Amino acid sequence: MISSVTFEKSTWANTPHKFEAGTPAIVETLGLGAAIRWVESIGFDAIEAHEQALTTYALEKLATVPGLRVVGAPKQRGGVISFTMADVHPHDIATLLDRNGIAVRAGQHCAEPLMRRLGLHATTRASFGVYTDTNDIDALAETLVRIRDFFV
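-> structure tokens emitted (152 positions)
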């Protein structure tokens, strides 16, 4: 038999704690601390240099993919490259890359006004970080060539 419980009163913590619902983000805080220590152990300068080297390498490799166009040419570029490929939809590219173990994003990337201004309805976006190496870039470029061959 299930008994019913009636609440007759509530007590509240003092401000600001009375506005914080649920369990504090303890695990997330511990994870953030570990992530900060890991990044500091590598060093921001080393991470930036690695990312810049990978991005330069990726731009060179992607230039060899037939029909691929890198979107934008900023003077300073972070580890993010958006691109389109003639006659291949960005979501098709993303799906086929995913099936080959390569994670990218496809779509408008929360930048619909910019996409309209550039005359694009979507791009594929590859991002690089401290965990990325040149083998990952090579796999991206090789798979993009296979995707292009499949659609053309």
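Residues 65 and 144 are 7 Å apart (CA to CA).
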